[in-house]
Write a structure and sequence with these properties.
The protein is of the alpha+beta class. It has one domain. Helix content is 20%, strand content 28%. It has five helices and nine strands. Strands 1, 2, 3, 4, 5, 6, 7, 8 and 9 form a nine-stranded mixed sheet that branches. Strand 3 and strand 4 form a beta hairpin.
């Protein structure tokens, strides 16, 4: 029997947030709603980005390289659509600097573009505090839950991505450089989803 309501469940709106990457040409202008970047190691496998699932990771077993991706939620400037944005570790350096000066990312206005303007061009991120005036930002979505649903993988334990006892992204990147992208002595999945500072 159907259940009729005057408005859809709020959670239904959140489930369908699109995932955006900085385009080859043009730019993304948005206001961040997440307090911090949250990220994990990923592979490009089967024609799409998927999380590294070591110790039982099909992509790792096929010797596919992995890299760290960071995720945050934001409201697009023109459409006011709530989206999830994906960034590489290098692009997230701008967010680290912003957090050092402002404590968190929520309310940060960003402009992202590639230089040179190509699919593999370096992502440039410019940040500044947004002039929100009387605007109230929406609550950030549960990014780990949304990503796990999108990737069709189980949700990790909550303790895996709490800020207490976290492993910083810069430490992980340094370990990559020391051990090589597929070093057998380093398991990227040990860290789970991690906040950056």
């Amino acid at each position: 029997m159907p259940t009729f309501t005057e408005t859809p469940d709020r959670e239904d709106h959140v489930r369908g947030l699109p995932l955006l990457r900085t385009p080859a040409s043009g730019k993304i202008q948005a206001c961040i709603t997440s307090p911090f970047v949250l990220g994990c190691y990923t592979h490009y496998w089967g024609g799409r980005t998927v999380p590294c699932e070591k110790p039982d990771c099909e992509a790792c077993n096929a010797s596919m390289p992995y890299r760290w991706h960071g995720y945050l939620s934001a409201i697009l400037k023109k459409s006011h659509e709530h989206v999830i944005l994906e960034f590489t570790a290098q692009a997230c350096d701008a967010f680290d600097d912003y957090v050092k000066h402002h404590g968190q990312l929520r309310g940060c206005a960003i402009e992202c573009y590639r230089r040179p303007s190509s699919h593999n061009g370096r992502v440039i991120v410019q940040t500044q505090p947004a002039d929100l005036g009387q605007v109230t930002l929406p609550d950030p979505p549960n990014i780990p839950s949304l990503l796990c649903k999108m990737w069709n993988v189980p949700m990790p334990e909550v303790s895996d991505f709490h800020r207490e006892g976290e492993v910083s992204r810069k430490h992980l990147v340094k370990k990559d450089e020391e051990n090589g992208s597929n070093a057998s002595g380093f398991n990227p999945a040990d860290t789970g989803l991690q906040h950056t500072r």
